[in-house]
Amino acid sequence: MGQRRPKLAVWKFSSCDGCQLSLLDCEDELLTVAGAVEIAYFLEATRVEIRGPYDVSLVEGSIGTPHDAERIRKIRQQSKTLITIGACATAGGIQALRNFRDVEGFIRAVYARPEFIDTLATSTAIQDHVKVDFELRGCPINKEQLLEVLNAFLNGRRPVVPPHSQCVECKLHGTVCVMVARGTPCLGPVTQAGCGNLCPRHDRGCYGCFGPKETPNTAALAKQLTALGWNDADIANAFRSFNANAEAFRREGDVHEG
Amino acid sequence: METRTIKVDALARVEGEGALYVRVKDGVVRDLKFRIFEPPRFFEALLAGRPYGDAPDITSRICGICPVAYIVGASQAMEEALGVTVPEPVRKARRLLYCGEWIQSHVLHTYLLHAPDFLGFEDSIQLSKAHPGVVERALDLKKTGNRILEVLGGRAVHPVNTRVGGFWKAPARGEVRGMLDALKRARDEALATVRLFGGFEFPDYEDDYTFVALHHGDEYAIDRGRIVSNRGMDIPVGAFEEHFAEEHVAHSNALHGMMVGAGKPYLVGPLARYALNYNQLSDLAKEAARDAGLPRVVRNPFKSLVVRAVETLYACEEAVRLAEEYEAFDPAAVPITPRAGRGTGCTEAPRGICYHRYDLDGEGRIASANIVPPTSQNQKQIEADLLGVVQANLHLPDDKLKWRCEQAIRNYDPCISCATHFLALTVERD
Questions:
Q1: How many domains does chain B have?
Q2: ipTM of this model?
Q3: Assigned architecture for domain A7-154
Q4: Are strands B255-259 and B341-349 parallel, antiparallel or unpaired?
Q5: Could you report the per-residue pLDDT of A206-257, keeping only the tens digit for each?
Q6: Which residue of A10, A138, B20, B292 sits 20 to 30 Å from the alpha carbon of B76, by its own alpha carbon?
Q7: What is the value of pTM for the model shown?
Q8: Would B420 be classed as within a structural domain?
Q9: How buried is B91 (Cβ within 10 angstroms: 0-12 exposed, 13-18 middle, 19+ buried)?
Q10: Which residue of A has its CA nearest to B153?
């Protein structure tokens, strides 16, 4: 008999399923991963449910209902290591835009019978509710980074996931700066690397889906965006997207709110 | 009087969170509810006030499995509202991108989520131990679907290279043609898939469905067409809201789709497309369907597995065709001047038609939005199927009945993340 395989659980909260799909999208590695761990709970992939405790829990999605706020506490108690994956889990996701508005009004706008809906006024990150051991950013996450994080935790080391900006990634890849060369507004200077500088490689400014980098200077970027012709509404709108409720982006968005 | 209680608290191998409740008394199903408890995310409301260009990227986050359906539907609606038409090369590039989504989504669902039911495995990992070659083929096919999304869209989940009016950067001809070897291999793998699934045993169940799908005379409808049914409906996309409505019921966070006036369920997705658009399938896809024993119209929802494989084959062939004739286009997107207007868009997401409508103010900001995803539309039909399936299978022991119900729900490849816009099953037998 070999060693007991670590038990992996994948949990879903309010989300689009895209980040857990990234695990299934590891076509070349999926069967190897499935061999290295015991998949103890992963509803999107299997009917098998093995009781906790779990060695590693991957958590996708944000907390948006009283029920979910309770559920994440129980999952934390059952998990040796808890890793959040994706912008919903690390920052509240696109649905955190409701934190800036009147939720009663939202419910009335979407549902004909608002009394049937049980929801919190805010959508918040997992970190706001329980201790998180590692946050993997992105909307969606990068699957190579997911494999690195899994590999690291299964081997008792810290994952190599740089907290520097998209700008560094663009330079490393030799991608021409869209802001300098073309005057295209870009959130790259304040956004964490990890996607593979996708937008600049497609002649598009970064839209911040990996959330704030370490110590971002959002005010300096806002000045540059103004110089490129954006007004306050444009700037607020840019910071208020998939990571709207991440501290640095929330503050800068508030500054430019109309 | 017989009293039995079956309970499933969370349905597996679907995208999102849901539950099923069934109460049986004296051998008759008295109550049945397919519940969606995925928390609501209020997409329509949070779009309000944002610029038109945000709609494709934001609505793609409704679903990580079918983002292209949202990107293309929202883009079409905005283009109509803004009075622009995308040139044919752009439309074809979107169709190629969409083929990628059909391939990866159908393969994910058929092989990894649905096929294990037919072979008695809990999941695809167990399946891979018994039949490694089958799962390896599935993963290779899925990877090719994702490769299309990456080459055309920049990444597989939530592509970045698409925009209202076209693309940010026209995909390079060499990269698109560079996929051809993999696409041709995928076509062979898809053909083998139709044969494999055709040999499965299917539960004996049929219904006289009302099928609704897009239809286009020149091609198997994916990205364009009129909305048609097998009951004589034939309407432009813009008339959708006159004919279909959403009803909000207490047991679900998803809105239930209904046909105005009929109050009866209807079915969208592979069975509907196959029935209404059979003539537009390729010769190879028709031949594969015949060889797999599919009739001209499939009324057994469990056989949707085979129909998805036929559609995967079609999507691979179509991707080969589109990649072979692909030339980079310039400009990458048509220029747009913001203005007030209203526009609608509708495409065939892997699970069925997905409808968008937006109203814009004079500066091109979103004044109102309405999005009707396929799983909302199918929800009533899923309940109707479950009623029939439970009633026909009351002789089964609880665990088998439960599994059969799950399988019946998976027939719809329900994307519950989309519909809330997952699943626990409770069966009470008094």
A1: 1
A2: 0.95
A3: 3-Layer(aba) Sandwich (3.40)
A4: unpaired
A5: 999 999 999 999 999 999 999 999 999 999 999 999 999 999 999 999 999 8
A6: A138
A7: 0.94
A8: no
A9: middle
A10: A202
